[in-house]
Backbone:
């Protein structure tokens, strides 16, 4: 008859746990250093002079505030960051608003062929901006219709080749309007609204609340975590845009921060990498602040999405 193995005493099991915890903490510290390594490297190089920055030295220098001041004023990084802030806040607000309304329509409204509409929305996730950039450039940059007749003809035949567009080159509209729709936001809000009982919508109708009142008074207060998660994603996405602003914006005073950093690199015969690193550190600050302000909603929003 086989004798079952004796379980180790409780003190031995407790002695095993600290070793495991030490290993977990060491691995987490190494992972944090690996992720934050480029940021720490840029921060150290931003403090060094132009003679030291190209060398292997990782000793912090005295030039941090000097490089930040030059990057902010002389290299016009302050103007680029202002433009990016305006565009990022506008796109984030617009995407959140339209995604809320689209998600509500797909859940609480009787939409013909609703599954096909939702499937088509998800299909747009597979079409990145780079695929549409030529057609989008033509639509945005061409001259507007000169007469009302030309405008109505353009609207009546949207798929026909036309010499007209919106004439939005070198404007904020060219970077804001094409990105106001978000398939990711529609998906998130649709999944969230499907977990809210339909009886709330019926009760709102009985009380005389219209769709907008139902959205503002009931759905929005119950969706703060999803709104926070989407806001962080979209703000960081718009803040990091590079290709489309580079193509459609020609005026330097309307350019965004990511293109502005590239302009700092391209200026002059010899690049001041300490200045570039200082600009990169400045460009990290707004997304970091937004994430810190919405961190709790961001984590809860994705936790709720994972549970569903």
Residues:
């Amino acid at each position: 008859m086989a004798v079952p193995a004796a379980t180790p005493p409780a003190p031995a099991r407790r002695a095993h746990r600290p070793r495991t915890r030490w290993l977990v903490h060491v691995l987490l510290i190494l992972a944090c250093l690996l992720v934050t390594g480029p940021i720490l490297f840029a921060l150290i190089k931003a403090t060094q002079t132009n003679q030291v920055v190209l060398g292997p030295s990782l000793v912090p220098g005295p030039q941090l505030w000097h490089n930040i001041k030059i990057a902010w004023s002389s290299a016009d990084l302050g103007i680029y960051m202002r433009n990016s802030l305006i565009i990022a806040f506008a796109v984030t607000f617009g995407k959140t608003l339209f995604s809320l309304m689209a998600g509500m329509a797909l859940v609480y409204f009787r939409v013909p062929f609703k599954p096909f509409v939702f499937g088509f929305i998800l299909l747009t996730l597979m079409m990145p901006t780079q695929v549409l950039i030529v057609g989008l450039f033509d639509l945005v940059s061409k001259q507007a219709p000169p007469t009302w007749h030309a405008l109505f003809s353009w609207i009546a035949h949207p798929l026909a080749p036309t010499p007209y567009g919106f004439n939005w080159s070198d404007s904020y509209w060219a970077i804001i309007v094409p990105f106001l729709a978000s398939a990711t936001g529609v998906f998130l809000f649709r999944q969230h609204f499907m977990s809210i009982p339909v009886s709330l919508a019926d009760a709102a109708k009985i009380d005389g609340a219209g769709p907008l009142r139902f959205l503002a008074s009931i759905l929005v207060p119950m969706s703060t975590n999803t709104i926070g998660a989407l806001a962080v994603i979209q703000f960081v996405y718009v803040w990091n845009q590079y290709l489309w602003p580079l193509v459609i914006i020609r005026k330097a005073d309307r350019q965004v921060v990511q293109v502005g950093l590239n302009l700092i690199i391209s200026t002059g015969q010899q690049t001041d990498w300490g200045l570039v690193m200082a600009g990169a550190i400045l460009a990290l600050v707004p997304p970091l602040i937004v994430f810190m302000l919405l961190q709790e909603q961001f984590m809860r929003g994705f936790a709720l999405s994972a549970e569903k």
Remarks:
- Residues 209 and 217 are 9 Å apart (CA to CA).
- Residues 18-62 form one domain.
- The chain has two domains: 18-62, 75-307.
